[in-house]
Amino acid sequence: MTTKTTPAGSPLIALPAARHVTTAGAAITLIGTFLAWTWTSEFPGDLTVTGYPGGLQVLTLVGAVLTLLFALSGYGIKGLGWLTPGGANSPVRLAALGVLGTTGFTVGAIAVKLGGVVNLEPGAWVSLVGAIIATVAALGLPADQELDDTTRPTPLNRFVNSLRAPAPTRAKDLPNWAEILIIAGAFGVALHVFTYGIDTEYAELFIGYIISVAFGFTALTRAGLIARITRLTTKHRNVTLAAALIAAFCFPFTQQNEQYALIGANILIFATVALGLNVVVGLAGLLDLGYVAFLGVGAYAAALVSGSPLSPVGVQFPFWAAVLTGAAASLIFGVVIGAPTLRLRGDYLAIVTLGFGEIFRLTVNALNGVSGPDLTNGSQGIPSIPDLNLFGFDFGVSHDIAGFTLGRSANYYLLMLVFTAVVVLVFRRSGESRIGRAWVAIREDETAATAMGINAFRLKLLAFALGATLAGLAGTVQAHVSYTVTPEQYQFAGSVPPNSAFLLAAVILGGMGTLSGPLVGAALLYLIPAKLQFMQDYQLFLFGIALILLMRFRPEGLVADRRKQLEFHETGQLDVPPDVPLTDQAAGTTKAGA
């Protein structure tokens, strides 16, 4: 058995047999998870059982196994080489750091909650010491790539460089059925990880989950596995889309708690609206700060015609008619607002759209029969919106399907999934069309696009209207899910999404102009506040810090297309070929060819 050799830079610290020590540390951490970590069950998760990890111990166990596999892959063991087609050492470092973070957080949480380190059992100390050994030893592994000549070799720069890895080599093509199975397996794992995060029952477990997922995903990225899966999903786009929809469809069948299914339904609503905003911001490059108002227009329009006893309209349309009403109302507002304002650009357009969002909220607040016509019940909103009943299927009651019980939230989740699929299809088809390419041209340089014959105003108005319509569609379902619509739900910024600031952040966080980016960003921005209720007073502060860090370290977003990666990062390629003198022979050839 020989150690896998890779072109590498110098290690951060000189440590003999660093890989052996890292492997031993990961194994020690793994053993510690099967021992009791505390003596009392007062700490959530019951970490008192020996031989059966639970709660945060499971996260440490998974991280230790991942660290162990990456470390063993570096030995060149047959059958493990596929784990590290990219970097061989940076994944070990990142996985070890994740284990240390999760284990250290758990030990600290136990000490704080139970009143001191005396409440720790030997298992916690074994795992913590093992994690420290693995992390320190991993820092002694060589870097996967040399430090750039233009970067000063400071300790911080060397540490950051040690977490980077070269791009993975191209994998050998597999049969189509094998590649499709890999895609299906990847989405199955993603569904399990996402479901585990939603099902976390206490804040300590969710924080540990966030730490583990963040470091684990980064380690898989540096190892090159994410790049290879991305290549497969790009090659089989239709299969990938079908796999994603099937995984999303299976989610409510994994939930026994109605509250968690409701979180899933709201995530879909938030993600669908963010994807509609991505048409406006990501494709056309129009900064819209009042986009949540279109969601409100669709929700109010549907609430007025859905049979609410307190609706001043006093009619009840079928659901399909209510959906068309909400979408049409949002479309009309999009055209009315966009026609006079889309000749503006940049900050001026942002200010106008921000004003529209506030005007909508103030207007529906004033239509209470006192300050204006009695249309929206003012600040009281339109409550008691009845549940849907489609073809005899009542969305307000539980149903047993194939041995699974689907509650009200699960029913609306599946309905919203249909709307999300429609919006995904619209976004994908429009983005790949001639109109979509014209939107991208306008986003990159409107003046140049106009000079090339593109009618910028007409296409920007089309993007604005399409984005408004998609938001209105989501609003019609949101009105029924939440039972009521009020003006306070549609603010520019607030601690409870969706609002315009969070929607825009979801697009930027996920990746502007991409299909999956806003879906990922929306899921994160909704799930994290929903699970960390104790941090509600500091959500906007933490949200701002997260955006600053994102703009500094990954400005293209979590899911970036090739254009954004080339725009925000050094590529090592010259934009202009070197100026080579033209020889007489070459000049003669050029003239002859001319």
UniProtKB/TrEMBL annotation:
<keyword id="KW-0472">Membrane</keyword>
<feature type="transmembrane region" description="Helical">
    <location>
        <begin position="291"/>
        <end position="311"/>
    </location>
</feature>
<feature type="transmembrane region" description="Helical">
    <location>
        <begin position="260"/>
        <end position="284"/>
    </location>
</feature>
<feature type="transmembrane region" description="Helical">
    <location>
        <begin position="174"/>
        <end position="194"/>
    </location>
</feature>
<feature type="transmembrane region" description="Helical">
    <location>
        <begin position="21"/>
        <end position="39"/>
    </location>
</feature>
<keyword id="KW-1133">Transmembrane helix</keyword>
<dbReference type="InterPro" id="IPR043428">
    <property type="entry name" value="LivM-like"/>
</dbReference>
<feature type="transmembrane region" description="Helical">
    <location>
        <begin position="461"/>
        <end position="481"/>
    </location>
</feature>
<feature type="transmembrane region" description="Helical">
    <location>
        <begin position="348"/>
        <end position="367"/>
    </location>
</feature>
<feature type="region of interest" description="Disordered">
    <location>
        <begin position="573"/>
        <end position="594"/>
    </location>
</feature>
<keyword id="KW-1003">Cell membrane</keyword>
<feature type="transmembrane region" description="Helical">
    <location>
        <begin position="410"/>
        <end position="427"/>
    </location>
</feature>
<feature type="transmembrane region" description="Helical">
    <location>
        <begin position="538"/>
        <end position="554"/>
    </location>
</feature>
<feature type="transmembrane region" description="Helical">
    <location>
        <begin position="501"/>
        <end position="526"/>
    </location>
</feature>
<keyword id="KW-0812">Transmembrane</keyword>
<feature type="transmembrane region" description="Helical">
    <location>
        <begin position="317"/>
        <end position="336"/>
    </location>
</feature>
<dbReference type="Pfam" id="PF02653">
    <property type="entry name" value="BPD_transp_2"/>
</dbReference>
<protein>
    <submittedName>
        <fullName>Branched-chain amino acid ABC transporter permease</fullName>
    </submittedName>
</protein>
<feature type="transmembrane region" description="Helical">
    <location>
        <begin position="59"/>
        <end position="80"/>
    </location>
</feature>
<feature type="transmembrane region" description="Helical">
    <location>
        <begin position="238"/>
        <end position="254"/>
    </location>
</feature>
<feature type="transmembrane region" description="Helical">
    <location>
        <begin position="124"/>
        <end position="143"/>
    </location>
</feature>
<feature type="transmembrane region" description="Helical">
    <location>
        <begin position="206"/>
        <end position="226"/>
    </location>
</feature>
<dbReference type="InterPro" id="IPR001851">
    <property type="entry name" value="ABC_transp_permease"/>
</dbReference>
<feature type="transmembrane region" description="Helical">
    <location>
        <begin position="92"/>
        <end position="112"/>
    </location>
</feature>
